[in-house]
Amino acid sequence: MEKTELYAKLNEVFHDVFDDEEIVVTPELTADDVAGWDSLKHIRLLLTLERTFKIKFSASEVNKLENVSELAGLIQRKL
Amino acid sequence: MGYNAANFDAMVLGFGMSRELFESLSWLPRPPLDFSHRCRLALDLSTDLGKRLQSLAGYALDENQLNRIAKVFAKARENGCSPAPLVPFRLGVLSNSTTDFIVPALIATAARHGVALECIGSDYGQVVQEALSPDSAVNRQKPDAVLIAVDYRGYPLNCAIGDAEAARATLEAALGQLQMIRSGIRTNGNAICIVQNLAPPVECLFGSLDKVVPGSLRGVIEELNRSIAESIRGTPDVLLDVAGLAATVGLAEWHSPEQWNMAKLPFSSTYLPLYADHVARTIAALRGKSRRCLIMDLDNTLWGGVIGDDGLEGIQLAQGDAAGEAYLSVQRYALALRERGVVLAVSSKNNDEVARSPFRKHPEMLLREEHIAVLQANWNDKATNIKAIAEELALGLDAMVFLDDNPVERGIVREFLPQVAVPELPADPALFVRTLSAAGYFEAVAFSNEDMRRAEVYQDNARRVALEKQFGDVDAYLASLQMVITFQPFDETGRARISQLINKSNQYNLTTRRYSEAEVAAAEHNPNCFTLQVRLADSFGDNGMISVVICRLTGQGVWEFDTWLMSCRVLGRRVENMVLQEVLSHCKRAGIRKLIGKYFPTERNHLSEVHYQKLGFTQVSREPNGTTVWELDVESAEVENAPMEIHRVGFDVAESAPA
């Protein structure tokens, strides 16, 4: 999947999960930048990503993620 | 009514695998594209909050969409908005896993079932303490019921394998723990319990032998589930059959070790909407809000084909025939529902006599008139008829379920009677019963002698009720269907279908003249014939060819309708107006000044009797056998328009009508 297409999809998922259409997903984005991105929302985000991209994350994979760029890379490798 | 948007339906609604039915709640309509916007709007408009939320919750929603509704609910409560007419219900939730995901889904889903749910959560893993302590959060807040959402990980089920005595002791310990929780809730919280049984894990120890050797986890769980069911009987507590739910979608789908490890989710989040619907329908049943009457369409719902056109011998309803078996299974299920106290009724666009004939005469019919409380067969819209049925039975519209294969009829009923439950149906009738059952409209928490007798109370031989005033603005709904009508002269490609319609159509057929394919071909080339094949598409799909017209030049400047027929599936959409407009425009180009129409009555075409009158023709004569002759002056004719886009194909440029 093209990077722009991937980020467009990520944008949709973020809007859906955080119920905020103002969010612009960039590679540098972290949990600190988004209001309400707590541990519960983080799980919801991961579950929604799993359903959207029809992929599975393992606990060890998602524990290490620092920002959206790493998340996008992880998704990209699974597609 | 006989409409089947087969492929389109399957594509749009995402019916494919049967698992999809449960995963996506496919009996519910898909949410609109502006769903989030509507959620925000519901909050801004403080009026009718309860109704708005119920209508938003009525779609097939995923977890994030359910969360959105729960958020609106929470904010509305903060603002002090009343959720009426939703019925309030306070639910305690005790679980050995995290309830953070379950609670918002439950609150949103309860609105779908007419309940304003308030949840009292607890820390996970505190089940016994919460139940036994009189001043625990759950007990203090006096819930109406407490959901005991404990899965197999929350019971002490490990025991020595192969030791029957130890297995029995384990079973008793687990059951004892549950009894302790239940009596704690009853004593301290004065609430009833909704008790979950246990979805067995996927992983085996031996394999098949697990079911034989005492003490295996799967064996113990099986026994425990049986004991739980027995312990419920005769108490005010109710069972939530999670084991059955998990078995239905598949244990390997239900359990997600990854999600348990990551966030202590007791089952795969994919099935959260389904689980929530099962909890919510149980709560609705406790509040007496289960549905009580099943209203069924006839053509292509209870049998295959169209009784008015195909006749008793032509409809599909035979054992040994795949389609026939599918419709028989719908009838069998309806009968079984009636046995348990669900009232049956019929709403069909048909002639009354014709609609009743299979009930009276078809040897394979399982349903008979004595099983149907009210049978409404007429040509009025179904919303009006369903309202009349509800009034006749003295049941609320919110007690009604309407089963119809035709998406347009479903849409009209949803539009005008939002209280009526109208399941989306897959294209294949083999899955009708599964879909109806999956929707859980008739969920009950008890089964009494009264229920068993109810069917007889309502048994009164398919009575017919008079209709009051026609319902609101059906036209506005039809306009929203984005209908596209296509006019085309007869041609080689259409010939087989034209001939089929000419030889099959009985009901909306003015002259019932039958022509062979060769005769149809001859009409194509006859300079004294003007022909039309008409197709109609709408937002639900392509209806295919739905009308055929042959006009013959019978005098100087005179065309007579030799043949005019229409498919009943597009009745009430003013297709006939558009066809007449089209014919009139061709008249003008061909120098025709007068149109003649004849109605020849048959056993089956009473429906067409008023056709020419409605279109503004003047009656010229009437014969003793009922034949009527009509005429229309082309120059002064005025035909009411219908909201459709017009396409024309295959007319010569010289004679093509202006758009």
**Spatial separation of the terminal alpha carbons of chain B:** 32 Å
Quickly count the helices of chain A. 4
Radius of gyration of chain B using CA atoms only? 30 Å
Whole-number total of structural domains of chain A: 1
H-E string of chain A: HHHH
Largest interface here, residues on each chain? A-B, 16 and 16 residues
Determine the fraction of residues in helical runs of chain A and give it as a percent range: 55-70%
Average pLDDT, all residues of chain A: 90
CATH top level class name of chain A? Mainly Alpha
The CATH topology name of the largest domain in chain B reads Rossmann fold
The main β sheet of chain B shows up as:
8 strands, mixed
The count of β-strands of chain B is: 17
Strand content range of chain B: 15-25%
Structural category of chain A is mainly alpha
Q: Determine the mean pLDDT of chain B.
A: 91
CATH class descriptor name of the largest domain in chain B: Alpha Beta
Question: What characteristic shape of chain B results from the CA principal axes?
Answer: elongated
Low confidence ranges of chain B: 1-16, 654-659
Radius of gyration of chain A: 11 Å
CATH architecture of the largest domain in chain B: 3-Layer(aba) Sandwich
Verbal overview:
- The complex is a heterodimer of chains A (79) and B (659).
- Chain A has 79 residues and is an all-alpha fold.
- Chain A has a single domain, classed as ACP-like (Non-ribosomal Peptide Synthetase Peptidyl Carrier Protein, Chain A).
- Chain A is built from four helices and no strands.
- In chain A, helix 1 crosses helix 2 (39-53).
- The radius of gyration of chain A is 11 Å and the shape is globular.
- The N and C termini of chain A lie close together (8 Å).
- Chain B has three domains: 86-286, 3-Layer(aba) Sandwich (Rossmann fold); 293-472, Rossmann fold; 479-648, Gcn5-related N-acetyltransferase (GNAT) (Aminopeptidase).
- By secondary structure, chain B is α/β, with parallel strands linked by helices.
- The model of chain B is unreliable at 1-16 and 654-659 (pLDDT under 50).
- In chain B, strand 15 (618-622) and strand 16 form a beta hairpin.
- Chain B is built from 26 helices and 17 strands.
- In chain B, helix 5 (63-78) crosses helix 6.
- An eight-stranded mixed sheet of chain B has the order 15-16-14-13-12-11-10-17, sandwiched between helices. A five-stranded parallel sheet of chain B has the order 2-1-3-4-5, with helices on both faces.
